[in-house]
Amino acid sequence: MAILGCGALGTFHAQSLARAGVGFIRIIDRDYVELNNLQRQWLFDEADAAESLPKAVAASRHLARINSTIQIEPVVQDVTPSNIEDVLGDVSCILDATDNFETRFLLNDFAVREAIPWIYGAAVGSYGLVMPVFPAETACLRCVYPDPPTGTQPTCETAGVLNTVTATVAAVQASAALQILSGNPQAVPRQLTRLDLWTGQMRTLPLPERDLECLACRRRQFEFLETSRRTPISLCGRNAVQIHDSKRPIDLAALATTLEPLGTVRFNEFALRFFFDSYEMTVFPDGRAIIKGTQDIGVARSLYARYLGN
Q1: Sign of torsion, CA 86 92 98 102?
Q2: Cβ-contact 271, 277 below 8 angstroms
Q3: Lower CB density within 10 Å: C or N end of the chain?
Q4: What is residue 228's predicted lDDT score, i.e. its pLDDT?
């Protein structure tokens, strides 16, 4: 069982499945815990934020105290075409808890190619949406959304989110996962669930038919898997950019020694945080960095090169 993303949806998924006794849960997330996460991200506390723990690591520690009989595998990585098979290739079900369409389209391509069922979920404001995807049987994500949405999309940071909506969406997703994992995939309703907890409305609609022209599930053209580039990502709503240009591992202790004369540094075995001027840079051992204080990819690239090298 894999949970892709460990924020508002993923923390609820992880806790509910661990308490249900799911024997193996892999949690994949690229980010670290911040105080503003605690309003809606169910497993974390202020101590996790103070330590700047990666979300996957913090979640695994809490889950180990909830159910010590199961295996929790935290993976602190950004999922890309080059590593998706390593992190998702051996699981029987995937729960979507991502925060961007680029990753969801990558997940859809991989799950369709490998015939792994996955459960799409999204929540913002008071609105939520759930859709199960059973490759070769039901419509896939690209049947419904042939192309990623263009322009700025609302996020939990920009539009806010009612934490009960995230819990409700995640509960519907986790229920479907339990049906699949217990050997009853036929019990998962083949429907799209839409809800708005502020107005009290909930609607279920039959899943649309598979699109005969779908590039993914019909034509088997997996364009999101085929790119080898790690492009910078502007993290909408967070005034931050993620960059993963380095192909070399980073020695965080050595980097801390280098950066300490230039600003404030805090680090542990999982990540290093560097505060300088009006920016904050979080560096991970695989060379990935999240640069807060700008949404300009050019500025972020320049700062990355200046302090980590080309």
Answers
A1: positive
A2: no
A3: C
A4: 54
CA distance 258 to 38: 32
What is the mean pLDDT of each successive set of 10 residues along the chain, which is 310 residues long? 97 98 96 90 95 94 98 93 94 94 94 98 96 97 87 66 96 98 97 96 95 96 79 67 76 93 92 93 90 89 82
Q: Which two tokens stand for residue 147?
A: 């192309």
CA dihedral for 188, 17, 98, 11, sign (positive or negative)? positive
DSSP state of 173: H
Order of all β-strands in the sheet with 127-133: 71-76, 24-29, 2-4, 94-96, 118-124, 127-133, 191-196, 201-206
**Residue (of 64, 41, 250, 79) closest to 49 by Cα position:** 41
Q: Could you tell me the domains of the chain?
A: 2-226 (3.40.50.720), 233-308 (3.30.310.10)
